[in-house]
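Proteins fold reproducibly. Next comes an illustrative record:
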Amino acid sequence: MLWSDPENEPPKELRDTQAMLRRLSLFLALAMVLAMIVLGLG
């Protein structure tokens, strides 16, 4: 965190990256649940 940064306002790139990471983690969680179900049935 630099002194020159405005307070509580992350740059757009950081916000986009965080949003992408949230979607990616949600997708990974759903894929893991689906894999568990498939392996359990198989």
About this structure: The CA atoms of residues 33 and 39 lie 10 Å apart. The helical segments are 12-41.
